[in-house]
Amino acid sequence: MHKPASFPTPLLLLPLLAALFLSACAKGPVPADPEAARRTWNAFASRQAPAPAPYRDTLSMRFGKEGDTRRVEALVWGNGASAIRLDVLAGVGATVAMIAQDGDTFLMYAPMQRKAFFHQGQDSPLFKIGVPLPVDLARLEALLQGRWQEVFGREFLRADAVPAGTAYDLAQGIGGRLVLTKDALPASWQNEDWTIAFDLDGQGLARRLDLASRRGDKGIVLVKEREAPGAPFARRQTALELPPGTQVLPIERFRR
After folding, report:
1. Binned average pLDDT, 10 residues per bin, the chain of 256 residues
2. CA 11 to chain centroid
3. Which region holds residue 44: left if phi is over 0, alpha if psi is between -120 and 50, else beta?
4. How far apart, in whole angstroms, are the C-alpha atoms of residue 74 and residue 211?
5. 10/8 Cα distance (integer angstroms)
6. Residues 29, 160: contact at Cβ < 8 Å?
7. Terminal Cα distance for the chain, rounded
8. Where are the domains of the chain?
9. DSSP strand E in 28-133: where?
10. Which CATH entry fits the domain spanning 34-253: 2.60.40.10, 2.40.37.10, 2.50.20.10, 2.30.30.230?
11. pLDDT for the residue numbered 38
12. What share of the chain is helix, strand, coil (3-state, %, to 5)?
């Protein structure tokens, strides 16, 4: 007569389950093939947009928290150099903000308040005026124009194989982790606080950026129209001239 099979008691199973759990956690990222990862990265680098050229883009931007977002239109233009102009328009076509950035110098004029707000430094002031972006205006413009290396740098620290392609831990630029598809196109980027998902057009340029932060901030930047002016903008067209007597305050004093 066969004896009934004996099963381990729950207490005896605990060490086995703990070992299985620790083994699963220890697997971690799967390194990508070094040669394949370098080929993909080099192909991505070769997509770098040509020398900066005059541009004028019409954008639709939506920002806010989940279930509480607001949409604005924007016109951004420049010569692909450090000087950038951006006008933010309300739904009725009224200009609610006029922004100029040249290098680390940022100036915004709010017509409704008849005040200007000033910022200087490498950190992005956009979040302080209600535009939740993990990059400043210069890097946003570089993203939209396909000058990837100005944002992500020229080198990476390591590369891992992921379902979407290859994930690169960045050594330069804004840091974080950039995922490239098998076609060497940017699919997503993330750091400790932010994620960006890329939707590209037929030319490999960003058509839409979807942004999200750990704090619950949401953002969409949609390129509605791209223009390539035949001649560079004059300095007066990329500068922001303030009305006489305008009060200029630090950006920390801005209130929506």
Report:
1. 48 48 57 96 88 88 82 91 87 84 90 91 74 84 90 95 97 95 96 95 93 91 94 92 93 83
2. 50
3. alpha
4. 17
5. 7
6. yes
7. 84
8. 34-253
9. 30-31, 55-65, 68-78, 83-89, 95-102, 105-110, 115-120
10. 2.50.20.10
11. 97
12. 20, 40, 40
Indicate whether this model's pTM tops 0.85: no
Closest CA to 172 of 157, 153, 147, 149: 153
Please report, as a single letter, which amino acid is at residue 102.
D
Distance of CA 33 to the CA centre of its chain: 27
- Tokens 């831990």 correspond to 169
State phi, psi for 199 to the nearest 5 degrees: -120, 115
> What is the rounded distance in angstroms from the CA atom of residue 81 to the CA atom of residue 55?
10
Angstrom distance (rounded) from CA 172 to CA 151: 8
85 residue type, one letter: R
Residue 52, amino acid: P
Is 63 in contact with 217 (CB distance < 8 Å)? yes
In one-letter notation, the amino acid at residue 50 is P
Q: How many residues does the chain have?
A: 256
